Amino acid sequence: MADELVANCRTLVISKYDGSTDPQEHLSYFENVALLHKYTDGIKCCVFATTFASASQQWFNQLPAGVRGSFQKFRSLFLYQFASSRKLQKMELNLFSIRQTENEPLKEYFQRFNTGALEELSAIQEVKATSFFQGLLDGDLFKSLAKKSVSKFDALLARAAKYINMLDAQTSKKVNRGEKRKEIMEESPSNNQRSDFREKKPLFYKVNAV
After folding, report:
1. Which of 89, 155, 166, 180 is the most exposed place for a label (fewest CB within 10 A)?
2. CATH 1.10.1200 holds for 90-187
């Protein structure tokens, strides 16, 4: 395995990243190349490090060894470290402008945001997840995400879908209870009728003896 890793850790013919340009563009280009070469997770970490220069190389040298073995952690830290160099994308502004309005059901906000996200396919997962969370009103889903956040938009959508299904089930249960109560009330004598039954007295007819 070690020999395989060393054999595949050759420098790619792509521009070096020095921390002054958009990190997402550099990462996206590398991931396309990694997909083409069918790199494993460990090899991605090794080869990606060879694309660094200057400030990014210094940053990489300070990373704990454990982080370098997981490409998901590696890429997240990389994007976070050089976030200030990212281009301010119009698509990100569009996503952050989508906010849940007062009294808007979670399901409607979910659908509206997802429609906007589909129009901005190039927006990264982390940006989508952050903008969705920041647009949420204070509620059960907001509290859940505040306690246990998710960085991937797909994972956030999955959790949001669970809460929406739960709310739909609760609403359906309330409606069914209301309809059942209405049926019972319609089938039972009204309060006035029951009162009439209690107040009515039997009629006695006086019969004269012959």
Report:
1. 180
2. yes
